[in-house]
Amino acid sequence: MTVNRNHFKRSYRNLPQWDCPTCGKGHLIVVPEKTAIEETGPSKRAHGHDDWDPDWIVERFAMLMKCNFASCGEIAAVSGDAYFDVCVDVDEEGLYQQKMVRHYEPFAILPAPWPIRPAKKTPDAVKEALKTAAALLWQSPEAAANQVRQAVEVLMDAQKVKKRQKVGGKPLRLHARLLEFEKKDATNAEILRAVKWIGNDGSHNGGMKREDVLNAFDMMEMALSNLYDDTTSEILKKVRAVIKSKEKKPKAKKVSNGKGQSAGAPISNSTTQPTNPAPSGPSPAAAKHSSPSNP
Ligand SMILES: [Zn+2]
Questions:
Q1: What's the pLDDT score for residue 233?
Q2: Does the pLDDT of residue 283 top 80, yes or no?
């Protein structure tokens, strides 16, 4: 997965239904009756200016959004500026009509939607730094990039990469720590070095684009998935368990048959519950156990 760019644009005609940052299952939906929009005083006073144009209008908005996943109920507060664009539409009679279209520019979302989903086993300190970065993204790409860099720093702590060259020595800079990390994990060290460079750029105000930060989020997601997502190995464990239970047991049956009467016990789990011989037919569980004979 990469960041859904449509959910992290600068302005919207309609706010997107961000993924709920709390449950990750639902989406945030605007609560219409909990929406306030008002033109600012300076904007109102500017109407008297000779050159006034509708695109001078500045409004502030505040909205509540609610997660639509039934058992979640998370509420997010969104606020920012609203302004108008003048569009030209052609009406039914073919005449040009000017239309004012309001755009919302969010500056704060609490709690902020996650641009990425860090792997479940990602250390909390790394998640916290990324969460802060996600919140800052709406106000300052520089500050957000810096926080993503901070996530790399705490990730190095979690990976037990040394902080100093020697005990009592000078602290190692992040770049030096990443070179240390490279000795054990070249692929992820390279990804994280790129994130660090984007974060460094964030330290120098100006010139940082939101897209640069979103790229850094994509890179972090990839590194965290490589390091902490054990979905593949967990599924493989289950695969092996199924193969073992379905394919090895018939073999065991053949071997144990040669031993005579004691053979029954290790073959079928159902025989370990002799109080329930189930003469009227096998239970669903027993039926499962019997399936190895019908592969
Ligand atoms: Zn939710």
A1: 86
A2: no
- State in Å: Cα 17 to ligand 1 middle: 11
Specify the long-range contacts of residues 206-212, CB closer than 8 Å, at least 24 apart: 206/142, 208/141, 208/142, 208/145, 209/141, 210/8, 210/10, 210/137, 210/141, 211/5, 212/141, 212/145
User: What's the 228 CA to ligand 1 centre distance in angstroms?
Assistant: 24
Distance 64 CA to ligand 1 centre (A): 14
pLDDT single digits (tens) 13-25: 999 999 999 999 9
Taking the centre of ligand 1 as the mean of its atom positions, its distance from the CA of residue 75, in whole angstroms, is: 8
In the chain, domain spans? 7-45+55-113, 116-231
For residue 8, what are its two tokens? 């992290």
CA–centroid distance, residue 71 to ligand 1 (Å): 8
Instruction: Report whether 58 contacts 81 (CB < 8 A).
Output: yes
33-62: average pLDDT: 95
How far apart are the C-alpha atoms of 67 and 186, rounded to whole Å? 40
Judged against a pLDDT cut of 60, whether residue 290 lies above it is answered with no
The percent of residues in the chain predicted with pLDDT above 70, rounded, is 83
Residue 216, pLDDT score = 96
Q: What is the pTM of this model?
A: 0.77
Report residue 291's pLDDT band, with 50, 70 and 90 as the boundaries: very low
Ion ligand 1, residue ranges at CB < 5 A: 20, 22-23, 26, 67, 69, 72, 74
Distance 72 CA to ligand 1 centre (A): 5
Sheet holding 75-90, edge to edge: 28-39, 58-67, 75-90, 96-110
CA of 229 to the centre of ligand 1 (A): 22
Q: How many angstroms separate the alpha carbon of residue 19 from the centre of ligand 1?
A: 8
Ligand 1 center–CA 76 separation, angstroms: 10
